[in-house]
Amino acid sequence: MKVYGHPMSICTRKVLTTLLEKGHEAQFVLVDLGKGEQKHPAHLARHPFGVVPAFEDDDGFVLYESRAIIRYLDRKLPGASLTPSQPHAYGLMEQFIGVEQSYFSPAAFKVIWERVFKPHMGGGAADEARVQEGRAGVDKVFGILEPMLAKQPYLAGDSFSLADVSWMPELEFLVAAGEQGLFDKHPSVAAWWKRIGGRPSWKKVAHG
Ligand SMILES: N[C@@H](CCC(=O)N[C@@H](CS)C(=O)NCC(=O)O)C(=O)O
Questions:
Q1: Residue whose CA is at the smallest distance from ligand 1 atom 17
Q2: pLDDT tens digit string along 38-57?
Q3: CA dist., res. 182 & res. 199, Å (int)
Q4: Backbone angles phi, psi at 181, to 5 degrees
Q5: CATH of domain 2-76
Q6: Which of 78, 140, 189, 190 is most buried, by CB atoms within 10 Å?
Q7: Counting atoms of ligand 1 from 1, which one is nearest the CA of 50?
Q8: Is the CB of 19 under 6 A from ligand 1?
């Protein structure tokens, strides 16, 4: 198996975490975003939208979109399932993958871009209005998660699932962006992040 991506990419990190959770090794092929390699013809042949990650299975099957890839890996690979079989838990997992994509990620990315990626790329001063907008969006999402995570340890219920995996990269970058205060305001969200962020898979993806 091959993963084409970048180690700092939020979406690539979801795929790498899933592979580690499943105990499976894949070849990592760097697509250097700093050099614009995601727009080169060789990568566009794998991912027509010119972003990362892309994935290639041993039989040559190619897939893109991080959330599709993690569902595929969980279904295909042996090891503990990251998809609950109980219908309510399954529904919650899908709901929170959707919440991450539709509400959390757009808000969190505003903060992460302005505070982490933009300075890293020499993009100049942060747009503080955009940071505030993103912060308000994250605060709203955390406020919705808070009462639920006060009653259950993971997004889908009692067990860790692909839903938790899909939130991990942005949670880590929010802390790196100096937003620990947003977690402190929502103690059950903070406890959940501590629980999932302490998993060996995530520690390896984020810190090597
Ligand atoms: N919906 C896609 C998003 C992919 C995406 O936006 N990837 C970013 C890195 S996390 C990227 O390649 N950015 C480079 C660019 O936009 O040119 C997924 O989940 O895989």
A1: 51
A2: 999 999 999 999 999 999 99
A3: 21
A4: -55, -35
A5: 3.40.30.10
A6: 189
A7: 17
A8: no
